[in-house]
Design goal:
The complex is a heterodimer.
Chain A (H helix, E strand, L loop, with lengths): L5 H7 L4 E6 L5 H12 L3 E6 L4 H10 L7 E5 L2 H4 L8 E3 L6 H13 L4 E7 L1 H7 L2 H17 L3 E6 L3 H7 L5 E4 L2
Parallel strand pairs in A: 1-6, 1-7, 2-3, 2-5, 3-4, 5-6
Chain B lengths: L9 E3 L2 H4 L8 E3 L6 H15 L3 E4 L2 H7 L2 H17 L3 E4 L9 H9 L6 H5 L1
Parallel strand pairs in B: 1-2, 3-4
Classes of the chains: A alpha/beta, B mainly alpha.
Amino acid sequence: MKQEDLAKELQNLGDAFNLLLIVPAEKLQQNINQALGFLTKENGLYISLNKPYVSIKDELKKQGIKTDNIFFIDCITDSVSEPKKQENVLFIQSPSDLTGLSLAVGKLIKSAKSENFLLIDSLRTLLIYNEANTVSSFVRTVAEESANSKFKTVIFTTKDGELFKKISPFFDKCLEVD
Amino acid sequence: MPKDLKKFFFIDAVTASVKTPEENDNVVFISSPRALTELNITLNKVLEVGNLDCTVFDSLSTLLVYEDQMTVIRFVHNVMAKLRTTNSKGVFTALKEDITTNLMKDLNMFADKVVELSRIQK
């Protein structure tokens, strides 16, 4: 699939879905921007595993994507500095704290009032810090919880054959972007 | 020391591994390129108190000589995050020969831009 077709694909998936997007590492941010351009018509959750939420917010603002309706789960800032409390941000200690992340995501999805989408950026980073089986269990839990709450879920990763085999059954659709 | 060099603060991870270094105002010595925890702690301290505009890291390829890829990836991810939270610019160099390593692939996700210098020269 071509990157420019992403928004159209997302639109065709309907009101609730679990989508795995496999993207080239060097085009990850561009694809995230594309997906958020569509998703941020509603409120939602953004799990950040690559960069501190401040950097992501700046990048999205530069691209003209509104960030007021995004609740960030930032897994980076707390691992390098003492984060300042923010209204729309929850800080997780590090990308290796999958238990903390899983509990936080579960709680937020179940208590969601207006949030309708979940974006994870990206599973490859979880593999740097955790075993593939642990990442796979985390993905299954998140996919089940978001499906039960009728979320639009978009999870990004880069090409990784081993992980893909393990997690692809948890998704409604898996797409590879050029 | 030439005037321009006074603008730099060096974290030297090589000298102390071959001889006892002489103390210098603008240098901190790390015991070896393998001492990533020591390097990380020192860099964090320098970034917090130093009010630095830019950090130049030379080079990722050398780290790969001393440590396995996953350790280096986690280290560099941490350093890049620290640079972002302290609003400091970061420039990391690596040899072209390492472009196919997992390190370089993963850094594409963490860095704002990856530039191949031979392409610029053409």
